[in-house]
Fold:
Amino acid sequence: MGGREIIPVILCGGSGTRLWPRSRAARPKPFLRLLGDRTLFEETLSRFSGSSLFAPSVIVTGAAHLDLVEEQSGRFDVAEIIVEPEPRQTAAALALAALRLDEDAIMLVCPSDHHIGDSAAFLKAAESAAKMAAEGWLVCITVAPSGPDTRFGYVRRGEAAGPVGFRVAEFVEKPDEARAAEYLKSGLYAWNAGIFAFKAGEYLRELRRFRPELAAAVEESAMHGKEVGNRFFPDRDSFAKIIPESLDYAVMENTGRAALVTAEMGWSDIGNWNALFAARKKDGSGNAVSGPAQLIDCENVLVDSDGPRVHLVGVKDMVVVIDGDDVMIASASGAAQVGKFAGIDDSRPKPPETAAPSRRSPRP
Structure:
């Protein structure tokens, strides 16, 4: 595999907890139509369509979501789907992808469940990151912060590394609000968006240097894996030996070749109902409604219903979600905790995702 300049490597899966009850383990966030007629996964793939910058994508997913991946990626140019036997975090997933590529191939690592409002700005940042990666940098595409958000990791820039990029001076885990405010005031920090660019061979060299046992287990699993059409199945027994670790911890925080570029691209990780609320279009009272609903004297309310009509009067700062037999109502401040409900009756079949909510038959 190889070809054109940049190979998108899309990490696709999820546990289906943070947007419960709409999101479930069997159909997590990437595979839902949350911001239009396409799922977040389809939107991710579409960013690379029609551009000479990109080769066909490589997708890394788990066996539980393979059918969904194949169903939703059929209209796009996909080179290979790597099917992990079980989740082992991003360091291993990306090592599998790197081992399937030429060592000089430039990987653009993208989560499959993020929203990017300004695709042109994203593509410009991706091109800049790829140019730095071609020079041997391991590049993190960061996002200019819009506020002191405590949900994200932060990256502090160091000295310049070329015309648009900087060396990474420090990776910082999710700070408290006071520290996040200090970071914002300094102007030196940006959000870690989980988007990276590096040469396949460069990543593998750094992984072998800092996590030799992890790298060896992935290499063994890839060596004994099997190709079935455009699917690649790593060896299960070898893969089970891997100690899960993220790309950030295993490589990015250790390498001396970490760099960053920062973009303003309308990015959101859609990490909870409030983040989705912020990304959706709103009426003059700040309400965002998907599905049948009637709101009277309401402000800053999110309604997401797959059928039953919702009637609300005089409420503010609320999230109301109806999915099948589940009704979830939360204050805006409490909406981030809905993952605690995940797993309740999730064994029941969930209807296929549709482009728009369907109306149920009226009760007699």
